[in-house]
């Protein structure tokens, strides 16, 4: 036991001596001087705006590797030396002079006067569209549980279709403005089906012409109430 304890003490002294020698070597100031030279940053001039770094024409400091591997290959920056600084300053002067002395462009707005013939053509196009085109509506239908739907039985709508609904759909689907008073719809539509509604569409020249507007079959919504 005495020999083992003696051997442990010797090992402890050896380790302490080695540790002190290593610490003496690390504290050497020349090592820190070399590290400062290795990680010294470069001054570069940016040629374009870069987020979190600077704007075009500014001088910033970056790591050598970042400049060598990213900025320089993409021409995002140049070294801050005399010739590059002179070129950048001259380019900025040219850009500023062009911006200051650039003539203002004046847009000419021409007013096109619509003739009576153009109005008549527009009227005939709208009247023909009302006569030949159908307007489709989608509505929910009334459906009660436990009652089967019989074939041929008219389906009742949950919300009827009024003149205002018809005018809005004609304007949306056909791009034609129709007055509610010009539609001959005695009562709102309450059942699914097809109906032809007569319309007194008024021309721009104030001559009233009666047109028949075809309304397509009313389709029930896909998500009926179960």
Automatic annotation (TrEMBL):
A single cellular component GO annotation: ribonucleoprotein complex
Key words, A-Z: Coiled coil, Ribonucleoprotein, Ribosomal protein
GO MF term list: structural constituent of ribosome
Residue ranges of domain Ribosomal protein L9 in the record: 43-79
Pfam families named in the record: Ribosomal_L9_N (PF01281)
SUPFAM superfamilies per record: L9 N-domain-like
UniProt record, GO biological process: translation
Coiled coil: 106-133
Listed Gene3D superfamilies: Ribosomal protein L9, N-terminal domain
Family: Belongs to the bacterial ribosomal protein bL9 family.
Protein name: Large ribosomal subunit protein bL9c
């Amino acid at each position: 036991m005495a020999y083992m304890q003696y051997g442990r003490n010797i090992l402890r002294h050896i380790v302490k001596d080695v540790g002190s020698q290593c610490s003496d070597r690390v504290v050497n100031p020349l090592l820190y001087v070399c590290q400062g030279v290795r990680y010294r940053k470069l001054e570069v001039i940016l040629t374009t705006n870069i987020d979190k770094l600077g704007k075009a024409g500014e001088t910033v400091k970056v790591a050598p590797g970042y400049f060598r591997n990213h900025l320089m290959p993409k021409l995002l920056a140049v070294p801050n030396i005399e010739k590059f600084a002179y070129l950048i300053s001259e380019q900025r002067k040219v850009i500023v002079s062009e911006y200051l002395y650039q003539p203002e462009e004046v847009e000419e707005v021409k007013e096109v006067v619509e003739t009576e013939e153009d109005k008549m053509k527009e009227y005939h196009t709208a009247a023909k569209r009302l006569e030949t085109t159908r307007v489709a509506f989608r509505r929910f239908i009334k459906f009660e549980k436990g009652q089967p739907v019989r074939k041929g039985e008219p389906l009742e709508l949950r919300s009827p279709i009024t003149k205002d609904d018809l005018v809005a759909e004609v304007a949306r689907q056909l791009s034609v403005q129709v007055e509610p008073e010009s539609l001959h719809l005695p009562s709102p539509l309450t059942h699914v089906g097809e109906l032809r509604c007569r319309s007194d569409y008024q021309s721009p020249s104030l001559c009233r012409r009666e047109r028949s507007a075809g309304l397509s079959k009313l389709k029930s919504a896909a998500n009926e109430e179960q």
